[in-house]
Amino acid sequence: xxxxxxxxxxxxxxxxxxxxxxGVLRFHDFPCTLLDxxxxxxxxxxxxxxxxxxxxxxxxxxxxxxxxxALQSQAIYNNISRYQRAVADVNRILEINGKPFGxxxxxxxxxxxxxxxQKSKDLLAAAETHDRxxxxxxxxxxxxxxxxxxxxxxxxxxxxxxxxxxxxxxxIGFVRKHxxxxxxxxxxxxxxxxxxxxxxxxHFAGLVDHLVAGPGEEQLLAILGKKGKSISCMPDYSxxxxxxxxxxxFILPYAASSGCYWSKCSFCPExxxxxxxLPLAPDQVMADIQALVKQTGPILLHMLDNAISPKLLQAFIxxxxxxxxxxxxxxxxxxxxxxxxxxxxxSGCVMLKLGLESGDGQVLEAMNKGIxxxxxxxxxxxxxxxxxxxYVYLLFGTPQxxxxxxxxxxxxxxxxxxxxxxxxxxxxxxxxCGPDADDLELRDFYxxxxxxxxxxxHPRGWNRKEVRKFLDQEFRRHPDxxxxxxxxxxxFTSNHAPFFI
Length: 501
Hints:
Structural class: alpha/beta
Strand order of the largest sheet: 8-11-12-13-14-15
Largest sheet: 6 strands, parallel
């Protein structure tokens, strides 16, 4: 079997999903090959720039090799200005390559002006016209070579992001046309969201043989003829090009769970899609991590959980992985305990991503976040004192929020500016099957039968236009907020943030 991770996504670490599937398949004696087409396709495109006459583009092409080498070494992460310039130059080459194809292309995104990843008819058109895809010169040769050498009976595509969808279907169209005997399996986070939508209709029959929702190990084994409950297996990264990623060393991604152990937040897609929480035992997690660290020699461990459970945080303290690590965690009383935070820092924790969402108590209560500003304040102070950086996520425009409460969030962040190293700002999108949708006047946000979100008339008049105005003219312009925003690594954001700490 061939497992493929398509472009485009951030190419700073290997894809964890296909590595986990490889571990399961090989444990059950199913041979497989992994292809990170994301990093390979981006490097292919960077190596084949279109001719451009403007000064910036010519400089970017001339300095490409030096910039890629710099992003793969630690020194440039000690100088944010040099880093920003190198990233901008590399990104410029993708940008100019995309323009003749009608694309807005970047190191993290693929946006087609003619085809939408939220319309099934456009994805079918991408499959039909696969030879017009910008990555066709790469994937037509690469897939053909692997198919000739490996003779796979099936190919699985891991589709997690909208930015991958058009090229994923172009690759599927190529395989279906030239190798019709091969079984095509499509899974991943985006596919899971499609299938969990109550209004889902399968428009891809005849093109895709099997659509898989959720983690997928058991379904994949069943498709291959081995039924029964699958045991969890350690991911296998051995096929992946560990030295090619755009980071100053190998980043090891690892998921100790799927779903969210809290799963009560009113706005959460995990809750809307009814994704179950499926954790691995902490002892198994730590044994996996220690073995993978020994095998791969990573510079950093990236925990992929929606929220690292309190039990697993304690396991990190009790069994340090001997490598720096970061990931998402819920604000809790444990994180407000200075000694606990010091234990996390001693275990190698360099940064925690925190879904604060709001600095207003009433909004947090209405969201059912299970936290309050007082607890958040204590946690931020304790993490700062322990030496753990924070990457705070804020969400504006929820049905529970008003502009006055948004200003409370602004004030809260300013008050804690010394304890907030980075943050992400987002405007709320209503999940198509979210629990709040029934009580609001909805309207189309993204046109298309595969759209995951809806727009809505805000009950307090705090609509998207007003939220954007507040963020652009008030929030981002505050000098303390602007100083935090300037620290955020462009394009790679939280994935590169630990290297600046």
